[in-house]
Amino acid sequence: MGSLPSSSDISLSSSLFPEKSPNQTSINESTLLNLFKSQQNHLNFFFQNLDLSQTLKFTATLLNSPGTIFFSGVGKSGFVARKISQTLVSLGIRSAFLSPLDALHGDIGILNSGDVLVMFSKSGNTEELLRLVPCARAKGAFLIAVTSVEGNVLGGVCDMNVHLPLERELCPFDLAPVTSTAIQMVFGDTVAIALMGARNLTKEEYATNHPAGRIGKSLIFRVKDVMKKQNELPVCKEGDLIMDQLVELTSKGCGCLLVIDDEYRLIGTFTDGDLRRTLKASGEAIFKLTVGEMCNRKPRTIDPEAMAVDAMKKMEAPPSPVQFLPVINQQTILIGIVTLHGLVSAGL
């Protein structure tokens, strides 16, 4: 997109939108680039004028809240408030979105003394939020207004007001809430990460709140959680003839045989690749060969308590990748097998 100039290079007027005929629907690269540059300058205005002492007080209030942190807003600000609340929840912080309309029809019952109610409003004159204030105050909640217009009504009736500096909206009429919602989102999510750091949230704790995501799975799932075991294992003895074990080799979906002794200790592995190489080298003599004669007696293995993501790394390690790892305990007893297909199916 090219380098972005300073605010002095960008006009904030409607000149960003050149005159066009009523039926013209195209847009050129220069116009689009100027819009992005202008939005960047509006965001820079926010960063350069934000009162950090006020923001610190706001963040500390949320950090020390003994109750739940509720967020509220109307329209686009409501969407932002809901998203910020969901960010906090994902970090293990008690939070929820409270619709101002639904609150006035019963949902305010969820508010308790010690809770914090953060209300997002660009103008600070949103009627629904102003109607919510006395009801929320009666429930004992601590009220915070997050607004962008100086001297607004909402800020004056709350316990705390946080001002988000807004130069203007990107909209040529300075009406559509696109810059104001952007700075609301930046502000809220940045505070959320500040809370994350202040609470010393670990990567493992974060993962427990995202068990379905790849990050969560990589930090939660162990080999024992994703391995095949018991009757799913393609096992055989080293004295078994290769040709007698073809069904076992192909029916379990592992692409290998796990060669064990009478005490179920792992001796080695024999893969479908080994079968092809043996057949090519031995011809008809393969009918007399045992699995133990041709198996790999030094296969890569893994412990059941190892992280599943480490199993994948071990499979991909030099000198050549493998498609499976036998799972053995400290006594080399075979207890399972983890396959690349199984790891991918688990979302890793």
Notable traits:
SIS_dom, 15 helices, alpha/beta, elongated, isomerase activity, 41% helix, 3-stranded mixed β-sheet, CBS-domain, Arabinose 5-phosphate isomerase, 348 residues, 5-stranded parallel β-sheet, Rossmann fold
CATH architecture of the largest domain: 3-Layer(aba) Sandwich
Q: Could you please say which CATH topology of the largest domain applies here?
A: Rossmann fold
Side-by-side strand order of the widest sheet? 2-1-3-4-5
Identify the CATH homologous superfamily of the largest domain: Glucose-6-phosphate isomerase like protein, domain 1
Could you name the CATH class of the largest domain? Answer: Alpha Beta
Question: What is the number of beta strands?
Answer: 10
Rounded to an integer in angstroms, the radius of gyration calculated over CA atoms is 31 Å
Biased composition (Low complexity): 1-16
Region (Disordered): 1-23
Domain SIS: 59-201
GO molecular function: carbohydrate derivative binding; isomerase activity
How does the SSE layout of this entry go?
Elements: H1 29-49, H2 52-63, E1 69-73, H3 76-90, E2 95-97, H4 100-103, E3 116-120, H5 127-138, E4 142-147, H6 153-157, E5 160-163, H7 179-198, H8 203-208, H9 214-220, H10 223-226, E6 235-237, H11 246-251, E7 256-260, E8 266-271, H12 272-282, H13 291-294, H14 308-316, E9 324-328, E10 334-339, H15 340-345
Parallel strand pairs: 1-2, 1-3, 3-4, 4-5, 6-7
Antiparallel strand pairs: 7-8, 9-10
Helix pairs in contact: 2-7, 3-7
Biased composition (Low complexity): 1-16
Domain SIS: 59-201
Region (Disordered): 1-23
